[in-house]
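Researcher: Next sequence.
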Amino acid sequence: MSGRLLRLVCTAAAATAVTLLAPTPTLATPRTLQAPPPLQAPEAPTPRSPLEPLEPQERSTADLLTELQQLYRETEQATETYNATAEKLRRQRTEVARLDTALARARLSLHDSRGAAGRLARQQYQNTTDISPYVRLLLAADPQHALDQGHVIGRLARERAETVGRLTGSEREAADLARKAREALDSQLVLAERQKKDRDAVLKQLRRVEELLASLTPAQLAALAQLENEGTAEAQQAFLASGALAQDDQKPSSEGARAIRYAKRQLGKPYKWGAEGPKSYDCSGLTSKAWAHAGTRIPRTSQEQWARLDRVPLTELRPGDLVIYFPDATHVALYVGKGEVVQAPRTGEKIKISPIASNPVLGAVRPQVKPRPPQRDKPRSSPAHRSSSRSQPGR
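Model: Next structure:
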């Protein structure tokens, strides 16, 4: 084999080796298809907890009416508490003013007493002598005149003792009145703070009422009014059928008739908590003002009216009497006869005439009218007497 042929064979063998050693491209492996995830069933709604309150739209009309009436009652309870505190505060302010006036007079009297005591002290200093009254009597030129002077001096001494006594009494009175005035003022401040808390409690209850009413639809409000009217009609029918009231109304007293006329003149005016007129009233503000107009002052709140006025059986109820409602006496109305009352019902309503059983009746009370002192008739001469007097000749 020639050298050239040998070189060709070697070159071919090397090329073949290079070809065998070169990397060969890999074939792409086919991608395995994955199965889609299984479909999940929709989640069931989370059951509502028994303690979780329902939305107003999900509640029955009866439930809503029960809650609303309860809110109204709690609001009226807070209102009557506020009224009681306000009445105590009013009396306390009057007492503070009285004590301040008495203290000013006592201090003026004390000033006068101290002036009189000062004058006595100066007179005693000017008349001071070392000679006893007995020696002065012996040395006097006119013993009788000296005795007379002694009587005068004794009287002056008694007057001085009385002046000192008045001074001591004035000081004690002024100190006692000053102490009472401070205590009365402290009580006034405590009542003022309590009144503020009571007012805040009323406002809180009113906000709860407003929030509930605002959450209701017009249809729900109409259904509430209808259900309440039906309940009142049923309660009135049952109350009258029970024989709780007499068949015929008794005749009102003249004062009771005046109280009824006053209350009826307020028909249509709005209810406002804590109000006593003339533009608005709460329940006890209306009844207390009506009887005050009739000439008889009665307690300000329904609870005090129930506690302090004379109670009468419902079978003896007469127009002008007060009908008290709820076990804690937190509402009051004025009986006008024929099973009806005039009342300032609650926030958002106006003074109106309602069935007596519009609320649960607790009982009735009657303001006690004080008898008026008899008036003396002025003597009047009769026409016959005047004519006969004119016919008589002058003397």
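Model: The two ends are 207 Å apart (CA to CA). The longest helix spans residues 143-214.
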